[in-house]
Amino acid sequence: MPTSLVITVLVLFLNVASQTSEALDPFACDPKDGMSRNFTFCQVNLPTKSRVGDLIGRLTLQEKIGLLVNGAAAVPRLGMKGYEWWSEALHGVSNVGPGTKFGGAFPGATSFPQVITTAASFNATLWEAIGRVVSDEARAMFNGGVAGLTYWSPNVNIFRDPRWGRGQETPGEDPVVAGKYGVSYVRGLQGNDGERLKVAACCKHYTAYDVDNWNGVDRYHFNAKV
């Protein structure tokens, strides 16, 4: 993600404290921390754009870079804790990444059919409804302290070859269907409130990434000629 988008998502999440239980510590702008009162980016009554600009202006280049990796580094001088970006929810909240943990009060989550099958319905209302249920469960897990609020979903790569092992998690080979699916599922995940994200969707993967170990060429090193 570009740094500015990362910061925007972080600032939108600073509103989380007002939506969740008091026992859940916020990522930043902790009302118990007197330092937070001095930061413009902690003023929830201000527009998100103003808060983003203030936070970016306070970060050093090294701190910005530290926010771009999976385990985003803490920025103690600004009262910002570390954050694990990696969670996935392609057809339900998954524990495949370190940002989500099943167990205890959350032994699992609803698993909907693989995307290749729900996409075959050509039903955009269904796609959005699934995203809405998934984000309901994601929020519940976040409130329970076992999940984050960012999800690497949906997968909008075009399914060009049946040998690709991730094809079933895509909407298929039609770019139009993939585009409509992506819009609907993201809307279901994120909600419709422009100032607050229910969760944050991050479409994956990189352009034309649909190769898995073909003739010894792995997905990290092949040359994607579009």
UniProtKB/TrEMBL annotation:
Q: Name one GO molecular function term.
A: alpha-L-arabinofuranosidase activity
Which InterPro entries does its entry note? BXL, GH, Glyco_hydro_3_N, Glyco_hydro_3_N_sf
Record carries keyword Calcium: no
Q: Which GO terms describe its biological process?
A: arabinan catabolic process; xylan catabolic process
Q: Which first-to-last residue range defines the signal peptide?
A: 1-23
The record's listing under Pfam families reads: Glyco_hydro_3 (PF00933)
Specify the Glycoside hydrolase family 3 N-terminal domain's residue ranges: 106-218
Q: Which UniProt keywords apply?
A: Hydrolase, Signal
| UniProt-recorded name of the protein | BETA-D-XYLOSIDASE 1
